[in-house]
Design goal:
Layout lengths: L2 H13 L5 H7 L8 E7 L2 H9 L4 E9 L8 H6 L5 E8 L6 H9 L9 E2 L2 E2 L5 E4 L3 H17 L8 E2 L4 E3 L7 H4 L1 H11 L1 H9 L7
Parallel strand pairs: 6-7
Antiparallel strand pairs: 1-3, 1-6, 2-3, 2-8, 4-5
Length: 209
């Protein structure tokens, strides 16, 4: 089951309920004064958001788009193709609890970094993976994390480290989708075969969700 097949049901459900923004904000831990930002593309942003928020030290992840040519794209525009955008998550993290390098390292273990055509059952340019380095220090650490993954996976890593890109948040009904819609998301994730593929690639090092 791909995310595209769930879109119609998702839109219908979104029309009948609020985005839950105020409730979601109340459940998040307070933002530390020294919080930093990372930007990752990990295929389906529902999964990328869910998995990276499980990493200790991550405060929040927001689903959206990055890397393309179109300003303020809609989900439908990105899915149709031609915008150059990939689905991405903007991650707020506490550097006192997790370094950027370790965060990038953990991110790579939540995806299939050997797949250049998408992720799992979601295929196409908007599902390609990337680490967007937002400054020179992030690029250095991201390249180190990528090199380590490439050694472990015997030279098969294709996930690039890209330069800084503008991030555009996705529509409200995409935010925290996995948490707000556990049954539908569970069917999607199982049908997509993500966890089985992560285990096949990373073994015990892969994210366990």
């Amino acid at each position: 089951m791909t995310k595209r097949f769930l879109l119609a049901a998702l839109l219908l459900a979104a029309c009948g309920q609020s985005s839950g923004g105020s409730a979601d904000a109340a459940q998040r831990p307070p933002r530390p004064a020294n919080a930093q930002t990372a930007l990752f593309a990990g295929g389906c942003f529902w999964s990328a958001e869910r998995d990276i928020e499980a990493v200790p030290g991550v405060v929040e992840a927001v689903s959206g788009f990055a890397g393309g040519r179109v300003a303020n794209p809609s989900y439908e525009q990105v899915v149709r193709g031609g915008t150059g955008h990939v689905e991405a998550v903007r991650v707020t993290f506490d550097p006192a609890r997790i370094s950027y390098r370790e965060l990038a390292r953990r991110f790579l273990r939540t995806i299939d970094p050997t797949d250049r055509g998408g992720q799992f059952c979601d295929r196409g340019e908007n599902y390609r993976t990337a680490i967007f380095a937002l400054n020179a220090a992030q690029r250095r650490d991201a390249e180190a994390a990528r090199a380590e993954a490439n050694r472990i996976l015997r030279g098969r890593v294709v996930t690039p480290v890209r330069g800084a890109a503008r991030f555009y948040p996705a529509e409200a009904y995409h935010q925290d989708y996995a948490r707000r819609n556990p049954a539908a998301y569970g069917r999607y994730r199982r049908g997509c075969g993500k966890d089985a593929r992560i285990r096949a690639i990373w073994g015990a090092q892969g994210a366990a969700h």
